[in-house]
What does this fold into?
Amino acid sequence: MTRKAAIIGGGVIGGGWAARFLLNGWDVAVFDPAPDAERKVKEVLANARASLPALSDMPMPSEGQLSFMGTLSEAVAGAGWVQESVPERLELKRKVYQQIQAHCREDAVIGSSTSGFKPSEIKGCATRPDQIMVAHPFNPVYLLPLVELVPGDSPAALIAAAKEVLRGIGMFPLNVRKEIDAHIADRFLEAVWREALWLVKEGVATTEEIDEAIRMGFGLRWGQMGLFETYRIAGGEAGMKHFLEQFGPCLTLPWTKLMDVPEFNDELVELIAGQSDAQSGQHSIRELERIRDSNLVGFLRVLKDRDWGAGKVLRDHDRARQSQAAAEVSAAATTTGAPLELLPMQVLPGWIDYNGHMTESRYLFACSETTDAFLCLIGADMDYVAGGHSYYSAETHILHKGEAKLGDRLLGTLQVLHADEKRLHVFVCILKEGVPVATLEQMLLHVDMKAGRACPAGAEVLARLMPIAEAHKALDRPEAAGRFVGERRGR
Amino acid sequence: MTRKAAIIGGGVIGGGWAARFLLNGWDVAVFDPAPDAERKVKEVLANARASLPALSDMPMPSEGQLSFMGTLSEAVAGAGWVQESVPERLELKRKVYQQIQAHCREDAVIGSSTSGFKPSEIKGCATRPDQIMVAHPFNPVYLLPLVELVPGDSPAALIAAAKEVLRGIGMFPLNVRKEIDAHIADRFLEAVWREALWLVKEGVATTEEIDEAIRMGFGLRWGQMGLFETYRIAGGEAGMKHFLEQFGPCLTLPWTKLMDVPEFNDELVELIAGQSDAQSGQHSIRELERIRDSNLVGFLRVLKDRDWGAGKVLRDHDRARQSQAAAEVSAAATTTGAPLELLPMQVLPGWIDYNGHMTESRYLFACSETTDAFLCLIGADMDYVAGGHSYYSAETHILHKGEAKLGDRLLGTLQVLHADEKRLHVFVCILKEGVPVATLEQMLLHVDMKAGRACPAGAEVLARLMPIAEAHKALDRPEAAGRFVGERRGR
It folds into this structure.
């Protein structure tokens, strides 16, 4: 599919889609007649640039081209994906689809960001209804992986292509099989929203108290397991059936107000807006966005470390890009006698201290990651470790030569100073724009992990290691190698 | 208040309360007539021991005494806090309160874990209704901070005391001012639960699809901001009022099934239990608990790093304990010429690699934290850094001498090798049970951060540093000081 996306409607949601596509290497053309649409999309994009790359452990692809078009027809021309995010009015949406379909490719996917309408409703009087499907994302679109994909009766090949595109930009397409008002997630959100309005109106709780009731308790649970898996655990050893039998009967208690919708008048709006100001007014909306994004990046990285839930989506996205990068490094290693250019990295928000600098221990982390990449290259990878052998660090010397800041792109290189059956002596440079910010000299020992002592490395590892060590003998010995702490320079 | 808690009912919730109190240094007496209560409580406690300490950046206090009592009267005798977590049957709860009040202190707080009943209901025919209040926690009680405290008409002094106890065990008491069925959070949970059952029954979505719809999207949002703060942002620059005006009208759409409760029959139970088995059956309940706890610890630490939401609760809890510990270290520093015993640490789950070992860069982290503690001690603390001066690490040598594992308690000690106006040369040991697992030799330079070059430290800092440096001249120079990487031992 042509890697060009057309974004029709450039609000918070449209802007988020633009950022997702753009940062994943797609060209993006935006059409929105509002005079400040370009400014708004660029603000969303700035937020996305500050957060989305922090989810990746691979360097991001080069950004695509972003353009703002004066007409819808120019925006959709040649696009492989057209995403509609115009206001939630059915008549408007239907009109927009007719315009889109008069100018877009017949094989393009047209996705609708609608949170409420069913595909059969939006397809209404379309020229080619088959190419339209609901692709409902969640704000912030550039961070949250969920897309409710409601294809209706679109052809299977187009549905498969749509899922591939969404996965390719790091999202999680949830195929909603039966069309229904508000799909799945927004039905829950509406139920909670109704109840919350009623609690505020009756003075039972303020907006702040309601928010605390959510984020100090079940909100934390739901970021990593949903409703059913959480309750399965609550049932204890007896599991889901026990939980259902215990709590099922409570269902008949009329706890929630349910159908009792509060009248939506000025008084209620004032009450809620006033409480919300008291709760959050000390932060601007931009600040709140940055706080939210930083929290979400943190949560998502936690889940990524654990290969769980939304973190699994991130890992799969990395893995697809990683295999390609590994092949490139491997090819380079066999054709050069220079220090190996092993690991491109980017300074992530979690690497920064209260001072705005890269935390000291993260320099060692960057070096360790480079050494790990080298160990993978010579076959001492996780499978090898699972077999009971590993290289352990015995001794390390670090020289700090410069500073790295948030977002800096770094490159880890490695030179083998000496290798024998048991010992591996390496020199790692962490380069920023070709200049070292830190160097590391390290002695590693090959160990039998069960016996807890050094032993010769496996023949296959040595067969890969020794030719590199041999080639590196020709290299100059780095000046910092052999230094002790406090030694004068230029000895 | 006497730091003894009586736990009446030892299920998942009672066990969680027991763990909270016990790990925060309270003695705990459990009463539950079920024959396997002791085993179950101990299993919850094992989970809590594996996760709760990981939230703290201070060593935990010594655990209290845990006892299982044969009678309710023995359990409640002398307790400052009595927590009732028996099944949700009003008659049963009322009977239990009569028994509790026949034997407990008159000044004790009696908290009820009820998720549904109002205080006025449970106080019903109590002897001293004033001392009973709802204290509704969320599973897992040992990790989630929320307690809905619904005091009804209990006296203000007792309410204040109850809040202090809850904060003291690291919880967040949310004062629910008007009593109402199911308090606040469970009203939301019930609304979502009803809707979810209906979606499963009608075949719109499976339990797994519903869980994905939650945890890939809004669940992540709700762990760090609640409903209103999230929507305030969604309103964009125009904020809450704009959001309300835009989305208010949707409220009248009959999206959710609301009052349409599915009949709770065997067929529905089988359907849900079957789908849940397909979704989560590959993990035992114990495994799911560990996965959940590990995720929650990760989320909570993310929020703690950012001093936000539930993480702020953790920080406040640490701060209270920290000031006491700092005073102890400071006193020790002035009275000894030995290496300074600066920083007790515990190996946290995030410090462990895929191999089960403490990650290499975390040894440097532990050393950096020790050096930071020293810098605070001599007055080069965060306020000093805010003034534009700081000590930067120039060069570091690490010797790995042993291994630390999850939960190990470590002690960071520091010896000053040399200090002058601009330079600070230190030797740090990370000890486990008195034996070094790693040593670090480091040269720090005092810098003018704006000018970006070395300069003399402030007079107040030197006035604290120099006497320590002078005292440390008498100490033996550590064998590893001055080593270069690969140097033979015993030179």
Remarks:
- The domain at 185-282 of chain A is CATH 1.10.1040.10 (N-(1-d-carboxylethyl)-l-norvaline Dehydrogenase; domain 2).
